Amino acid sequence: MRILSAKSLGKTIESLCIEISSILGEDVLRALEEALEAEKSSRGKSVLRMIIENAKVAKELGLPICQDTGFFTVFLDLGIDTCVDGDFLEEAKTAVSRATRMCALRSSLVRDPLGERKNTGDNTPPLVVISKGSERESRLGVMAKGGGSEMACRISMLPPGAGWDGVLCFVMETLKRVGAQACPPLVLGLGVGGSFERAALLSKRALLTPLGKNVDEELSKREQELVELANELGFGPGALGGTASCIGARILSEPCHMATLPVALNISCHALRRKLVSI
Amino acid sequence: MRELKIPPSRLELETLKAGDELVLSGPSITLRDAALRRAGEFVSQRIKLPFSVSGEVIFHASPTPPKIDRACGAIGPTTAARMDSFLPLIFELGAFATLGKGPRGHESLELHRKFRAVYFVTIGGIGALLGQRVSGIETIAWEDLGPEAVKRVFFEEFPVVVAIDSHGNDHLEEIYDAYRTSGSGIS
Q1: What is the CATH number of the domain that holds B72?
Q2: Domain A147-272 - what CATH class?
Q3: Is cis: bond before B103, omega within 30 of 0?
Q4: Interface of A with B in 160-179 (CB under 8 A)
Q5: Does the structure show a pLDDT above 60 at B49?
């Protein structure tokens, strides 16, 4: 039996929160550089240059990449025969609070959605997702997601007969309506299958997966199709017009009931801030 | 790039065309979700606002706290469409422009024409960079709203595009159309 200390996991969470707030992942930067190459609009190119320059400035000066420093989600994947000693939820919470203070992050959470909506003051509580994997290895991930792109996410329970074409129509309808408000070029996380709530979680997890080619040939083709379709919309970088509206898509799929085809689209802005590490 | 000093003259404002790329210099006021909601409540209860909106640019924004030795933390626009329902209030209180990101709803075009007002957009998600185009920030009201408190933000060559001009022309819809393709037939 492997025992992980909640306290030391908390320290890792804190450093991940600090890192992702100011340092954009290599995979995202690479995707932005590629988008810059491919962009046809000169304004779109100049916006992409500013986005890349912003990442440099944020890293050098230790400033947040975006003023919306996001809602933190902590993912803990426990490997086989692994458990946690201590109060993990409390450690995750205090880790986010410490990172918020240390990096002068914006406090963007409100306590009571339908009531007074009083700010919690330190970006707590974070969302925590704990899962048991079937591998030996354990992993810890942190994602910070802004409110603008979160507001653009959608879920749909499609009839099974709708198939992949139905999924594409759902994605495109959503993007047409709200994609320009979510700070393109976007990254799309698609959760397919599971159940209503599971699809939504899968869609978020999909954003945690590094950008690049999917090892699953079929999913890889579909991800590519999503990117190409999204790039037809014309929103362009910064939603100021252009051909680069999307820099990546990841799909996660799980078994579902024969009567359903749950699909969730989790839209990330270009400042996709997340990191997953082995522990 | 052309610089627009705030406040602009009526003539300068009316000659701005949808699609113009500019830099703004001068003061603005931040108002977004929570503060706009409260402003609406004040006005409907005939309570005087603790700040004036007349002749101002309304910046839909909420910056990060500045680090010591810096004028401004990360700052940038939030989604303007979310504030569409507050546009009549903003314009009736006398603001000449708003600044946010992304397209506004179609219904807002007529409002811009009616009030001779302008909607500027800037780029979201580049808060570290835009923070360098702000020379000062001070909270002027409703500190209890935390990051959504009303702040005065001083721009120094802050880059914007005219998304809707005072004649109700919509630049974003037009430019999306220009770059829209439909190879697949689905879009």
Answers
A1: 3.20.130.10
A2: alpha beta
A3: no
A4: 165, 168-169, 172, 176
A5: yes
